[in-house]
Amino acid sequence: MKTKSSNKNLRDASKAKKDEFYTQLSDIEKEFGHYE
Fold this sequence. Notes:
mainly alpha; 0% strand
């Protein structure tokens, strides 16, 4: 029978908050040129 540890990675990431990603403004500006 499976234990509750099957989502341990998700819980650890949630606690650590180190899995966040922010798009850099320079990346947005580079891509925006394709849509003007």
